[in-house]
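Support request, please re-run this one:
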Amino acid sequence: MSSAPPPTSLSPALQEVWQRHHTGLLGQVAVLEEAIVALMRGRLEDDLREAARREAHKLAGSLGTFGLGHASEQARELERLLDPAEPLGPEHVRSASTLVVALRDAVDEGITIAREAGPLPQPARDDAPLLLIVEDDVPLAERLVPEAARQGMRVALAASPEEARAAVAEERPDGVLLDLTFETGTNDAYALLSELTCSEPPVPVLVSTMRDTLTDRVEVVRRGGRGFVTKSLPPEGVIDQLRQLVERERAAEMTLLAVDDDPALLDGVRALLEPHEFRVVTLNDPLRFWQELDAIRPDLVLLDVDMPGVTGLELCRVLRNDPRWATVPVLVLTARRDAASIERIFAAGADDYLAKPVVGTELLTRVRNRVERLTLHRALAETDSLTGVPNRHTSTQGFDRLLRLARRYDQPLAFAAIDLDCFKQVNDRHGHAVGDTVLRRFGKLLRDAFRGEDVVGRWGGEEFVIGLYGMSGADAKRRLEELLDAFARETFAGADDERFTVSFSAGIARFPEDGNHLIALYHAADAMLYRAKADGRRRVSAAAA
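Re-run finished. Output below.
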């Protein structure tokens, strides 16, 4: 029975990889044939034997990935026979000859089937990021196209939300610039915003509008918009903000670095993982691993055990000995399944292993398991566990980013410092468990009220901070007064089931009027906070009010 699969038994991505690499596979088989002929003549030298063993090792991994399971086993048996530690008697020569002939037949048959199936249709998608601009002012939208091309991005234009839906169905954009004002009103634009941000995966959206009102800003935030772009910005400023948004989204993708000396297997790994929103970077020279590591900064590393020059286990130990990379998840590919080999893998510091040949579903499952754990660990490191908002370190990075944007595009930025009133009395009267409930409830209120480009953080105890990009001090004051009203409606059950409410005080500083760096803004907001506490009737204080 044939071991070569029809191309339809593979995913389109793997079919494409097979068609690109099958001639290279024939070259690997030719090295094996040369070695077996030399063996039959009694002239097999050590260098050729090792070269043939390595090609058999590669074929055992890649052929199984392409569905040639029986051929993969034949290659694995040839790898075992060609091991320098194995004696080669006459019976081994006959066995090796039979195996290499069967291996050649299997690869030839797979190539014939692929050739008869014809070339696969090539996807039209370019690797350049795609921006979708939804704007009924066509001349205004068209002015953005040359600037996008200059910054290395493609653009699709839609003159209405309905046209935008059709464009998204054809190709998912990497970022969207959405005007809120159409002849049909704002409802359809808001509906499109919700559809884009709630899709899986979400599409990041910046909103463009001449109506820079607090109502619009709040509604955009509630629907998951990532920020505002004023129409007065020149084209380079608009596209630059969109490009930064796309780059932040792409940076949030999980990056996997796969290291193997077999290009066919590496391309197979990429074809299996990239459709599932993983960025896969491949490296077929393990000796360049260290210099590539800093440039790629992977979230996960996939290492083959058996590579020339340096083994995957040695690379794993190098990672574990460096504090910068000691916690990066490592998955190891191995053709060995005996207990001693698996023990060596874990002793080297690997998190998991995957047996060759690589099976798509198993690879995806193992990688996803590692990603889920990594995501959990990062969330624990970056988020305040009690309130669910970013901690001081993470939010400080967010504030620095907002300040860079504000300086670059000459936009306003409001920085608010918030302190829960009389919180020590809550803890003293009702207990710390009740105090924790208050903090959790307030954290949820903050997460629901501030999204998109806004930055929220807990800086310790009952102290919180908020950064509002593109917002004046007066508008920020109104936002916080709405938050104060909402928090005042929350009731808590204290000691002896006593019902009580909690308020907060807030101070607001403005960039650049009150300072041009984070520390200055914090001190200015803190001073306004104490002014607010001194006035029982006004709990939100801003110099602009």
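The longest strand covers residues 413-420. The domain at 256-382 is CATH 3.40.50.2300 (Rossmann fold).
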